[in-house]
Amino acid sequence: MPRSLRKYMLAATAVTGLALAPLAVSHLNDKEVQQSYRQSWFTLVALNFGPMASTVKGEIPWNDDMMKGWANDLATLTTLNIMRGFGEGSDKGTTRAKPEIWQNKADFESKMNDLKTATAALQEATAGGDRKAIAEAVGAAGEACKACHDEYKSKDYLY
Ligand code: HEC
Questions:
Q1: How far from 153 is each of 22, 28, 51, 98, CA to CA, in Å?
Q2: Residue 11: which of 54, 52, 41, 49 has the closest Cα?
Q3: Which amino acid residue places its CA nearest to atom 7 of ligand 1?
Q4: What CA–CA distance (Å, rounded) separates 74 from 119?
Q5: CB neighbour list of residue 113: distance below 8 Å, 6 or more residues apart
Q6: Dihedrals φ, ψ of 82, to 5°?
Q7: pLDDT per residue over 129-157, tens digit each?
Q8: Is residue 56 a contact partner of residue 134, using CB atoms and an 8 Å limit?
Q9: Mutate to test the pocket of ligand 1, among 153, 155, 156 (most ligand atoms within 8 A of CB)
């Protein structure tokens, strides 16, 4: 990745309030494969969503092609079966996933589906090119992140 793009992505991530520190270390831990799997996926999700949110807030210049690219990758990511990373017993270790996920699996999955619906709509909006519609779709996707984090993600690592 060219250095300027990297700087730009990191800045976008920082301004959207997403945790930067975990990005500085590898998520790969061979004793916690599922935790690594899901955390790596969330990192990819955040690095595609963060710049879109920054664009809509006017913090970085609007670029239609970049918006389309991020939206396409974000929508593609949500087609993966991320529940593979939330198997039984993987509530332990280096993770911010709350135990409530495993107690309310159906609700958690339904919130994951809401994200999938929102990112598909966002992809469609960027293909259409109407900036107001795109901004609204970014907001709706952000709400889907928040709805789940509020209930199922703790702020600190749980040990
Ligand atoms: C259905 C629930 C859910 C949705 C929807 C969701 N998240 Fe998360 N997110 C989590 C959980 C749970 C974790 C903690 C994972 C762990 O630590 O094992 C997490 C972790 C993260 C992390 C930290 C990853 C790391 O370890 O470095 C980021 C960044 C993140 N989410 C961003 C987002 C963004 C951006 C969206 C929306 C585009 C989103 N999430 C949508 C549940 C969700």
A1: 14, 19, 22, 6
A2: 54
A3: 145
A4: 7
A5: none
A6: -70, -20
A7: 999 999 999 999 999 999 999 999 998 76
A8: yes
A9: 153
